[in-house]
Amino acid sequence: MNDRVTELEVKVAFQDDLLEALNQTVASQQRQLDLLQDELRLIYQQIKSLQATGLPAEPVDETPPHY
User: Fold this and answer.
1) CA contacts within 13 A on the Cβ side of 59
2) Predicted model pTM
3) DSSP code of residue 1
4) Which of 10-14, 30-34, 60-64 has the lowest mean pLDDT?
5) CA dihedral for 34, 37, 39, 42, sign (positive or negative)
6) For every residue of 2-66, which 3-state class applies, written as one string?
7) pLDDT(57) > 60
């Protein structure tokens, strides 16, 4: 009976460690997502600003200077 309890305690300890590692991974990924969303918002605002100034949103096809 004592061996069985010890085995269960070891399993719970490993699960706690794994859960903590997964929690840290999820938190890290959430920070990365937040950063990417902020960067995307900034890019979107820059595009809107360029459109408001009358500049074309898409690059104009021009012949390169070496032709």
Assistant:
1) 4
2) 0.63
3) -
4) 60-64
5) negative
6) HHHHHHHHHHHHHHHHHHHHHHHHHHHHHHHHHHHHHHHHHHHHHHHHHHHCCCCCCCCCCCCCC
7) no
